[in-house]
Design a protein that fits this description.
Blueprint (H helix, E strand, L loop, with lengths): L8 H5 L7 H11 L6 H9 L3 H10 L1 H6 L7 E11 L4 E9 L8 E12 L2 E2 L5 E5 L6 H5 L8 H7 L3 E6 L20 H21 L7 E6 L1 H13 L9 E7 L10 H11 L5 H6 L4 E2 L1 H14 L20 H10 L19 E2 L5 E3 L6 H9 L5 E2 H12 L17 E6 L8 H5 L6 E6 L14 H4 L3 H15 L13
Parallel strand pairs: 5-6, 5-7, 7-8, 8-13, 13-14
Antiparallel strand pairs: 1-2, 2-3, 3-4, 3-6, 9-12, 10-11
Helix pairs in contact: 2-3, 3-4, 4-8, 8-9, 10-15, 12-13, 12-14
């Protein structure tokens, strides 16, 4: 089966949702430049439950062998949610077992896409895998409020096939008390899981009628750091095992220049005798519970906004004496106050305004503070501490990690996107270390020279102006880096 090229009329016909897949395939046979096996296309795509079967096939040993992919996986659950009825955008969400341990070798996989009919996604050329950062899984990071506008829906409405991963640590239940099994869950394990997710997505796209071409990758925050380390590792594999054709790095850095104080700060976050993560890890602490705090604080801000907060002592700590609402605002607007050696001096998630005594008063860039509080509630309770340790070790450059060993061999196109009140221009140095000949950057600022009040790290997804400031440029970059005339099949790789 040969999938379809971008210049093929089938792509345009998907905008008319009454046109059946079988009819469009027939049109493609007459007018397109890529041959299509109508029998297999009909079997894989037009029958009810087409995507379920495609996903099962993408995980089966025989289906993966046909794609020249190693390993196998198992779909434990699959759901469908309608996100935008007028544009036929849905989200498929799957729980996937990717290893022998049914309790812990688990990731989440999401697909936000336009449908032709229920369970039958359109065929597309543009595809993107989105990787979340700390605390939030895919929905919390990128799809927190479908009714308020989100990047995945916007991209899907423009015929981008949007996929997302929930890294394995987001699947750990809230009631867990023994975290020994998470001891070795570092960036390398996240990278292996990301590779599996990419392979499943590529195979499922092929089995549901689209191309087997490599995908674009987007990583936000810690997800961008994971993206760099994944690409570094991918350069050591044969080209046939590469899954990524280009990378959108969103508001993060992996490396900083030798004289940048952020390098020493990363070392301190690891090695400080009192607050360093290494000492905690070596004494049996294998998780960060920042997500548990964020979820509880978001709930309190929504349900009891005027009550004194129970998270910080009355005096001597960040946010001491604040109400629950003020804590929720502070988590967004003054995030840096919660960190030992924050990644940038005034790092914050959402740009804010402050009252005369310094307490946060509002979040002017988001449409509603309630949306932010709701997003806080969506945080996963636990994150593997080794992920954080591994990332800081690369930034520290103390020789304890080799995850960045092949950054200089990365050649795929790179688009760096930043917010001045988040990581901002700090992310440009990492991009400078790559061998890519196609490098683009975009850093947005509302208050130049005033990072404290500027767009924050999460405003890229939550702000009222996010579509025009960040999403439209991302879409343009995606469309200019799709597999334009390449009708890829497994035999091409």
């Amino acid at each position: 089966m040969q999938p379809l090229c971008r210049d093929n009329p089938i792509r345009r016909s998907h905008r008319t949702m009454g046109v059946s897949i079988v009819t469009t395939v027939a049109v493609a046979l007459v007018t397109g430049s890529c041959a299509v096996d109508t029998q297999s296309m009909t079997q894989d795509v037009t029958t009810q439950g087409g995507f379920q079967r495609a996903l099962d096939k993408a995980c089966s040993a025989t289906g993966r062998k046909a794609m020249r992919l190693s390993g196998s996986c198992s779909i434990l659950s699959l759901s469908r949610k309608e996100l935008a009825l007028d544009s036929h955008i849905v989200e498929y969400s799957a729980t996937v077992q990717i290893g022998p341990d049914r309790a812990h070798d688990i990731i989440g996989l999401h697909r936000v896409v336009r449908e032709a009919t229920p369970w039958v996604p359109i065929t597309t050329n543009d595809s993107l895998m989105m990787v979340h950062g700390d605390a939030w899984a895919f929905d919390g990071a990128f799809l927190d409020s479908p009714d308020s506008g989100t990047a995945p829906i916007y991209l899907a409405e423009n015929d981008v096939d949007v996929w997302g991963i929930d890294l394995r640590w987001t699947q750990v239940p809230a009631g867990t008390t023994d975290f020994t099994f998470m001891k070795n869950w570092g960036l390398d394990i996240d990278g292996q899981d990301l590779g599996m997710a990419l392979s499943i997505a590529r195979a499922a796209r092929y089995y549901s009628g689209s191309s087997f071409s490599k995908m674009l990758l987007l990583g936000w925050s810690r997800g961008a750091q994971l993206g760099y380390t994944y690409l570094s590792t991918e350069t050591t594999r044969p080209a046939s095992q590469h899954h990524v054709s280009g990378f959108i790095s969103v508001d993060s850095y992996l490396k900083v220049s030798p004289k940048d104080p952020k390098r020493a700060d990363a070392c301190a976050r690891i090695h400080d005798a009192k607050q360093g993560t290494l000492a905690a890890y070596n004494t049996g602490t294998y998780v960060s519970s920042i997500g548990s705090f964020a979820g509880a604080a978001g709930l309190a801000a929504r349900q009891q906004p005027a009550s004194p907060n129970a998270f910080f002592p009355p005096q001597g700590a960040p946010f001491s004496g604040y109400t629950n609402e003020q804590v929720g605002l502070g988590v967004g607007a003054a995030t840096y106050q919660m960190f030992f050696k924050p990644p940038t001096p005034h790092y914050h998630l959402t740009g804010g305004r402050f009252a005369a005594r310094g307490e946060p008063a509002s979040l002017p860039y988001v449409a509603s503070e309630q949306r932010w509080f709701n997003a806080m509630q969506m945080a996963a309770p636990f994150e593997a501490l080794k992920v954080i340790l591994d990332a800081d070790a690369v930034t520290c450059s103390d020789g304890s990690s080799n995850l960045d060993a092949h950054l200089a061999q990365i050649t795929v196109p790179i688009f760096y996107v930043g917010a001045a009140g988040g990581f901002g221009a700090s992310g440009l140095y990492t991009m400078s270390l790559l061998a890519s000949s196609d490098k683009t950057s975009l850093i947005q600022s509302a208050t130049p020279g005033d990072d404290l009040h500027d767009y924050g790290h999460a405003d890229i997804w939550l702000s009222q102006d996010a579509l025009s400031l960040w999403w439209q440029p991302m879409l343009s970059w995606i469309q200019s880096h799709d597999p334009l005339h390449h009708c890829a099949t497994p035999s091409d790789y």
